[in-house]
Every structure is written in C-alpha cells, then in structure tokens.
Design a protein that fits this description.
homodimer; mainly alpha; Arc Repressor Mutant, subunit A; 2 domains; 3 strands; DNA-binding
DNA sequence: TGGGTCATGTAACCTGTTACATGATTAG
DNA sequence: CTAATCATGTAACAGGTTACATGACCCA
C-alpha cells in the first residue's frame, strides 16, 4: 500500500525521499501513517522492482540528494494498482477495539474518557481550521484541476469523518448518562 | 492490539482458539481484521507472557480442545491497556490512498468506480439489516447491561460510519459530474 | 549555544498476510 | 455424496514500528 502511495507521488514528478516524507505529512498521512524509515526502505524496493531510478546529486553545505524518477514500468504498476479489483471497504480502528471492552471500567471513568475524546476531536478540527492542508503549496505539482479534485475529496472525507465521530461521541455520552441515572434511580 | 482484543474476550470466560475466532467474526472483525493463524499464534504469546493458562480437553468424535483461561496478570494487563494514555485517533484507509491518486484515470472511469462503491456500501447496509450482529447470541457471555452498552456503541459507530461513507460518495459523484459538464461546456 | 532544517539511512523487532495441512462427524 | 462444522496449527513472507546514527548549516 505504502509503496504505491510513494509511486503515486513520484508520478507527479521526480523527488527525493526527504521530499516524499514532507509531502506525505501534508496529505496522505491523514489516512495512512508512515515512518520515515519505512519510506526510505520502500524506496529501495521500488528501485529494485525497476519502478524508479535514482540519481545522486551532490550539494554544498547540505547532504547529497538522491533524486528518484518513476519509470515506465512504475507508471504501469501504479495504473495496475489503481484499477485492480479489490475490496477496500476496510475499517481499522484501534479506538473501537478499546471501547468494545470499556465495560470493564466504571461508567464515570468512561464518561470522563469520552469527554477527553471530544476535546481531542475538537482540537483536531481547530487545527484543521487554522492550519488547513495547504493544497496551494503543491500547486506546481498538481496543477490540473481534474487531479486536484481527488485530493480535495479526501480532505472532505476527513472533515465528514471528524464530524461523524463527534456526533457519535456525543450520542455515547448521552447513553451513558442515561444508564447511570437509571441505575442510581432504583 | 490483537493480543489485547483476545485478552478481552478471554476475560468474559475461558474459551478455545476456535471460540475466539468465531466471536471475533461476529464482533471485533467490523473494525479489526484478524486471520485465524494470527489468533492461534498470539494465543501462544499470551500464554508465554503468563496472561493465560491452557488445558487440553480430549473429546470423542471431535479434535481435542485447548481451553484458555485468563490469569490475574492477564487481567492486570487488560486493565493497563484499557487505561493507558495513547492517541487512538488514527484512521487508516486504503480506499483514500487510492482515491487520492485517482486523477490519473479518466473522469468517466472514476464516476463508474464511485458508483460501484455506492453499491458495495448498500450491500453492506442490507446485510447488516437482514443479518445484524447478534448480541443475543452472546448473552451468556455479556449479561451485564452495563457491559453490553459498549458493544452496542461500537455497532452504532459502524452504522454511522457507513451512512457518512454513502453521503460522501454521493457528494463526490455530484462534484465529478459538475466538473465533467463544465469541461464539456467549453 | 541550542534548536530547527536538510538529508540520509540501518538493525532489530513486532504484527499481519498467504498458503498449506489434517481429519472425523454431521446435516442436507 | 458433498459441504459445513469442529479444531488445531506451521512456515514463509510482507509490512509496520522503534530506536539509533550522522553531520553541517542557519537563525535567534
């Protein structure tokens, strides 16, 4: 998955591992986390598979750069991946895994926990509001409005997800409060 | 993560690897996928860590059973995991990874693709409607209404997620149609 | 003089996936 | 007769995480 994400970025233009790490942070990281070390390692695999070539460019005052360029075979692989038939409707949520078992703790602990999650969610929204993913920054990379649409759609997904998440958290808190009062009312 | 999910199930009562595989399918699998082989392997690790003990029970006409029982140290580990402070607000979506790069394909291919996703989403909703996750089936396991709430909340999350997903897909299709007509209108 | 940016990675480990293997019983 | 259920895994590989390492330049 990550290899194809890197390939997709390389398809916009030749760049270094360092560039990829940075662009990743501003875009794909919202729905796929990647370690720097993994990016450098996968870049080696990409080269080994013949999907990209590299060229070392010396610089003065700065470390050498290694610029990767996608090959024809890399473009084919990217297209193959994009059009392959696979079930991607997969949701992996460590949060739900924990909440499933949260009945082990007291209802007060849980209400407190959910309120903490609401705060985190708000902080995320606020950060998105004051410092939104800067698509302009990469205008040189993705200048085609047809291509930019898809980036925009993933950003919208993130926003809708966040909203749904908050609604769900609030509903859960209401349900816990109810159960709490029912039990104390007996 | 999976190890702690298994530990959580074991905490409801002693059971075999086979039982865990089945309960997993009806519950946790909606937000965490696990291979049978991984469950059996992690069960070995859980035993090695002293979080559970096992007892082999011969049966006739059927293979031997290996019943796992959580230990005090296992319960402590479960509680530690539940209360640990960690950022779980993580979204991993292979779908978004692909959509981000979908500008490489034609707008007609993309509209078709999104319509396929809508159908898949509807099929999922329909399956949930005619064959909902059967919490009753495990009433013997989780009989405390306080504990059952948390299971219910994760199911609700799945439903809200699915709804948001459909809304997003529909919005995307509208945006693509618009862009398509704008471009052909020039 | 201390932290941020630029720029590269390696090593060890942990977690998840795919493919394979066995074999009796029971329900349709 | 065939498919599902019961019940256990192993081996190899792929992918993700954590910790560590280097070093110059620039700005405050």
């Amino acid at each position: 998955m990550l290899k194809h994400g890197i390939l997709g970025l390389l398809n916009y233009g030749s760049m270094t591992g360092y560039d990829i790490v940075n662009i990743f942070k501003d875009s794909l990281s919202y729905f796929w986390h990647a370690q720097t070390s993994q990016i450098y390692r996968d870049l080696q695999t990409i080269k080994k598979n013949g999907w990209a070539t590299d060229e070392t460019v010396p610089q003065d005052g700065k470390p050498d750069k290694k610029i990767f360029t996608i090959t024809e075979s890399g473009r084919e692989e990217l297209k193959r991946w994009l059009t392959e038939d696979s079930v991607e409707f997969e949701l992996r949520s460590p949060l739900m895994m924990k909440i499933f078992f949260r009945g082990e703790l007291s209802i007060d602990e849980n209400i407190e926990y959910f309120e903490k999650l609401v705060k985190e969610n708000n902080a995320f929204d606020y950060k998105m509001y004051i410092d939104p993913p800067d698509t302009e920054k990469y205008a040189g990379l993705i200048n085609d409005p047809m291509k930019a649409l898809y980036w925009k759609m993933t950003v919208e997904y993130g926003m809708m997800y966040s909203k749904m998440h908050r609604l769900w958290l609030e509903k859960c808190i209401r349900q816990m409060e109810e159960l709490k009062h029912e039990n104390s009312g007996n």
